[in-house]
Design goal:
62% of the residues lie in helices and 0% in strands. By secondary structure, it is mostly helical. α2 packs antiparallel against α3, α4 runs parallel beside α6 and α5 packs antiparallel against α6.
Length: 163
């Protein structure tokens, strides 16, 4: 009887555990949404001069240049944005250790994102680790060329740290 119970437990472990793992993996996998457009395909040049019938409105003609497609936000960028939201929430409730841990995860995904360094610098400064906060703030300023808001916040923080 004990042997049957052990064999049943092994059977469950052998078949149910992979099923649970597969379910978790499929539920947590991030996929980029498919981009769909309503525009027609690119115009094809025929080599003959373009003729416009008098009945066609010039504003309704197919453009001669093709506008670039919107860049899809990749899953890593969405993950970083989500992590930053979570990190700032922990920062606001003064759970600075947790906000640092979350910001470090975001940093591993996108080490060029200036807001990650802002969150890290503010969290370390709140914990009294001003030297590290200053270094992270300086790195963030260097990376914030395209984000004036984050740049100003980093500069204010560096001014506050330096006294």
């Amino acid at each position: 009887m004990i042997r049957l119970r052990l064999e049943g437990t092994l059977c469950i472990r052998r078949f149910v555990r992979p099923l649970i793992i597969a379910t978790i993996v499929s539920a947590t996998t991030a996929c980029a949404p498919l981009q769909t457009t309503t525009a027609t395909g690119a115009p094809v040049e025929s080599g003959q001069p373009e003729q416009v019938s008098p009945a066609v409105n010039p504003q309704e003609q197919v453009p001669k240049t093709i506008a670039p497609a919107q860049h899809a936000v990749n899953p890593a960028q969405r993950a970083v944005t989500s992590l930053l939201k979570e990190g700032w929430a922990h920062y606001r409730i003064e759970n600075h250790e947790r906000s640092i841990a979350i910001a470090e995860r975001a940093q591993r995904l996108d080490p060029q994102r200036a807001e990650v360094y802002l969150l890290l610098a503010k969290s370390y400064h709140a914990l009294g680790r001003s030297q590290l906060a200053e270094q992270l703030g300086q790195r963030g300023v260097l990376l914030s060329q395209n984000d004036a808001t984050v740049r100003r916040r980093l500069q204010r923080l560096l001014h506050e740290i330096r006294g």
